[in-house]
Each structure stands twice: as structure tokens, then as C-alpha cells.
Design brief:
The protein is α+β, with helices and mostly antiparallel strands. Helix content is 25%, strand content 26%. A hairpin with a 5-residue loop joins strand 1 and strand 2. This is DUF2889 domain-containing protein.
């Protein structure tokens, strides 16, 4: 399914986020991310004109995390940016080493490298890397668990994704069918 046909229009800007996730031979995980901003017209900045289809921004990060999603290493590179000083913005990213991706992730980013302590675009890239990390590290663990025919369903600790999306609502049919021990009937919710 795609979006419906649009009204006549002219594309002016494309922003892309791409994340690739790798399980390393040493058991750690690499989350590689790239952000690019490209204009379809000559774009004037304080520092000069960027030709059409040339990146205004092109930035890369690599987060190395363990199974608990704690950042062990971080590398950031800026290939294209409006100002030469933007090339210096990778250093502050080191303040994120030791942080665990999870609840409060965006708040940690803001406290450690927010505002003038870091780069807006690298923060965007880092912020969205959390979802890629969950989709690789956590999803891989769940996949292995569900493929183990001798393993019970997730009866212990509540999975992080429950009650974070309308499909995984605790009182919904998906939880009732696939995670029934966490299911809460709508009538018991009203009694709270």
C-alpha cells in the first residue's frame, strides 16, 4: 500500500535516515547510521551556495552496544555540512559512552550533548538510532527465544514493547493472543 496520488507539486528537499545493524564477531553490536539532507535547487547559506542535489548535510555515526544496549563506543563523522566548524561536532558525542538506550534516552541526549554542547543533526541521528538498536538487538533476542521450541513464551519480565503502541495495548487482542499472561481485560482497567 502506498500513499494516494498527490496534487501537482515540486520536490524541494529530501532528508534520509538510514540505519544498518550488525552483530559483531566479538558479540557486540554495531548500529551504523547516516543522515543526509539534499536540496533540489541551488541553496544559499551564509557560507555560500550549495549546488542542487549536493548534500547540505551528510553525517554518519556508529554506536557499538552490548546486549543490554549500553554504548561501549561511539564514532561520528561529518562528510558534508554548511560550515567548516561543523566538522568538529563529532567529539562531544563521546559523552554518550556508557549510556544505556532505554527509558529516558532522549533526555540523556539532551543533558549530555544538547544545545550548544553538540550538533542538532547528530542528535537527530543518535536519537533515532534507539529504534534501530531495538529492532536489531532486542528483536534478535526475541527471534531466538521464539524459535526455541523448548522455551516458554515471555512469562517473566514484561517485554519493553507492551503498551507502547496501539497494537500492543495491554487490553488488546494481540496481547490477549500472543502474551496472554500480560493481558488486562478492559473491564479491569475501568476499575482502577
Amino acid at each position: 500500500m502506498t500513499l494516494p496520488d498527490a496534487q501537482p507539486r515540486t520536490r524541494l528537499h529530501t532528508r534520509k535516515f538510514v540505519y544498518q545493524c550488525y552483530l559483531r564477531d566479538d558479540g557486540l553490536w554495531d548500529i551504523d547510521g547516516e543522515l543526509s539532507d539534499v536540496k533540489d535547487y541551488p541553496y544559499m547559506l551564509h557560507s555560500g551556495e550549495i549546488p542542487p542535489h549536493e548534500p547540505v548535510h551528510n553525517m554518519h555515526i556508529r554506536l557499538t552496544v552490548d546486549d543490554s544496549l549500553t554504548i561501549k563506543e561511539i564514532v561520528a563523522r561529518t562528510a558534508h555540512a554548511p560550515f567548516p566548524d561543523c566538522m568538529q561536532t563529532a567529539g562531544p558525542m563521546q559523552a554518550m559512552v556508557g549510556v544505556t538506550i532505554g527509558p529516558g534516552w532522549r533526555k540523556e541526549i539532551e543533558q549530555r550533548i544538547g544545545g550548544v554542547k553538540g550538533c542538532t543533526h547528530l542528535r537527530d541521528l543518535l536519537s533515532n538510532a534507539a529504534t534501530a538498536a531495538y529492532q536489531s538487538v532486542s528483536a534478535h533476542a526475541l527471534h531466538a527465544h521464539l524459535n526455541d521450541r523448548n522455551s516458554a513464551m515471555t512469562q517473566g519480565e514484561r517485554p519493553h514493547f507492551l503498551d507502547k503502541c496501539m497494537v500492543w495495548a495491554l487490553d488488546g487482542p494481540v496481547v490477549k493472543e500472543y502474551e496472554p499472561h500480560f493481558y488486562v481485560s478492559p473491564s479491569s482497567e475501568q476499575g482502577k
